[in-house]
Design a protein that fits this description.
The complex is a heterodimer of chains A (532) and B (59).
Chain A lengths: L24 H6 L3 H29 L10 H36 L7 H19 L19 H4 L2 H30 L12 H32 L13 H18 L2 H15 L6 H14 L15 H13 L1 H15 L8 H24 L1 H7 L3 H31 L5 H27 L14 H30 L15 H4 L18
Chain B lengths: L1 H14 L4 H10 L2 H26 L2
Helix pairs in contact in B: 1-3
Classes of the chains: A mainly alpha (532), B mainly alpha (59).
Amino acid sequence: MSAIAHPHDHSHGEAHEHHGPPRGITRWLYTTNHKDIGTMYLVFSCIMFFAGGSMAMMIRAELFEPGLQLFNPQFFNSLTTIHGLVMIFGAIMPAFVGLANWLIPMQIGAADMAFPRLNNWSFWLLVPASVLLISGFFVPGGAIASGWTLYPPLSIQQGISMDMSILAIHMMGASSIMGSINIITTILNMRAPGMTLMKMPMFVWAWLITAYLLIAVMPVLAGAITMLLFDRHFGTSFFNAAGGGDPTMFLHIFWFFGHPEVYIMILPAFGIVSQIIPAFARKPLFGYASMVYATASIAILSFIVWGHHMFTVGMPAAGNLFFMYATILIAVPTGVKVFNWISTMWRGSMTFETPMLFAIGFIFLFTIGGFSGLVLALAPVDITLHNTYYVVAHFHYVLVSGALFAIIGAVYFWLPKWTGNMYNETLGKWHFWLSMIGFNVLFFPQHFLGLAGMPRRIPDYALQFAEWNMISSIGAFIFGFTQLIFLYNVITTIRSGKPAEQKPWEGADSLEWTHLPTPAPYHTFEVQPVIK
Amino acid sequence: MKLARAFKAVFWSFLGVRKRANYESDSQALKPQHVIAAGLVSAVVFVLVLFAVVKLVTR
């Protein structure tokens, strides 16, 4: 891009392509470049993933055999709580936002995000928030131990770490809302000429819908935790029965946020898988329009099913039935998506590189998680399974082999575009197969434990649960240490690795592959492409 | 008439399936505002239908 064609670019000085990014720490502190911010989000989420993962290893080490071995029960409960919050708000959500930052502008032919400074701020808010959340371990009373759902009265009774966590969740929520505003504005206003809504890649569609969900529910969570804060310090009794309040109200408000939150963590994963599968099946996505429609339907339905998280709190039978029917009906659009992915692969010229393996692993295991969700959706069944390991198994099948597998697949898929280098395919395959084995050994037995009645969030358990817990813990250690292969593979790809072609995946057809060199330059689409 | 088309499109979207020919004529004829409005109204109708079913079985 010559300076003569864009004389105004002189005023941008060092940000110009000729000069590249500024050097040193200021590049990252002050950056407004969507790729830099995307990278920071991904690095941050990787650090949080290993932090939350270490807590998971500690949890499984304690549960390796019955009795209290390593930790006291209070600390164990802090581990389960912070593990959940760190993985949800620190690992999965920022990873999706990082992918959105990297990919959405490139996929719609825009030069950057709509609000670059807001983008910088929404990332940097996350860092102090995560420090606040995790440093709870080092204050009097220890980290919060109420479970990630922060149910009162436990959350009202806890020490100062609860206030720190409330502030941290507020900041993370603000960051998510700003990120969503940015993503919606970028997608609606900055598409290249000819890039109509129904030509957008599925990842962009999924994020557009997810961003609306985030804007709708993050303020609800903010309201719930603000009420908690008021109950704790300012003499209100929103959730205190002694003062005329009701702890059940917290559950309603929390899960009105919490259920759409589940979809916030899975819809972008649907988008990723909808891009990886066609690329390696070398066929266009089957039923693109129905995929868009199904994603929108799932988003709408996600607002009317929150009660299935609280079948046991004593809602009237009519309430339980309503939430049961609504929840079961979500299986319809979700099933449509699974069938569409399978139809995309049907008679395709498939190859099984690492991203494809993770995408297929996603379909297989996410479907298992979906089915155990249907089991839990049945109110009478849920009453016996509520708060057991069956629930733990279910949501890890959805969030680990669902959201996390999709994120890992996305990293392998787009790493060549980001770094200009190919990752090591052999190591990638080892990573996939060990993850697949470790994951199932870790979580499948938890279905049996739950069906047998083992409650969640306990550091000790009765003897009859010993064998499956030991097997589950062995799976956990395999799964956990396997992720170091991923870390090693990604770092060596960034530092060395053989150069990647512009389009290493034959069937990939979105703009970042067809219109941009590899690695993607610091500034892309300064002149918007025209899409036919 | 356009409104009826928007509702029809939304109905199929709740099921998650749409014939290609119908989808293509939809995307020519329908405005996003109509689809969003029809979607929100349909969501309310969906809730009311579920509620009616619940009332029926708990009678």
